[in-house]
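It would be a great kindness if you could assist me with a short task in structural biology. Thank you for your consideration; the sequence and its tokens are set out here.
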Amino acid sequence: MMFRKLAVAALTAMAMPFAALAQEDDGGIGTTIGIDLGTTYSCVGVFKNGRVEIIANDQGNRITPSYVAFMENGDRLVGDAAKNQATINPENTVFDVKRLIGRNYSDKSVQADKKLVPYKIVSDQNKPMVEVSQGGKDLKFAPEEVSAMILGKMKLTAETFLGDEVKHAVVTVPAYFNDAQRQATKD
């Protein structure tokens, strides 16, 4: 947990000199946030008043579960709400999806993870896809799409806190990510 805070703080602080330069060049780019997209939890921070502040989500928590739930009524839940209903909707609640980013479906790690999660992981041209049911329709999402939903939630958390639109973010990735995984996260 402390490592997450330090990672967000370091990345947000590293982004500030670039933001200051950009503000001089183009009249201001707005606030840059730092997001730690974690396998289990994610958090978002902002450099404000000379220090990094980790932002609390709509539930008052400084960390947000990296969960996305697809509901039968067509709703999509992200974060605490998704995790809270996971026991009643396990096959449509996606978590630990970061493990699949940038990997092939045939990878041993993907096949091992497939046995550990209640939702379906299927192949699409040897790329792992998450298959869920929402509103009576079967849908497939790439791991990157699910991660984008989590990132969107973190961005919304920051925008709500700041009262302004956020256009720039620094996103952490684990040191062990290979180039394909890093690129997939950027995409």
Remarks:
- The radius of gyration is 17 Å.
- Confidence is low (pLDDT under 50) at residues 18-26.
- The domain at 2-63+145-186 is CATH 3.30.420.40 (Nucleotidyltransferase; domain 5).
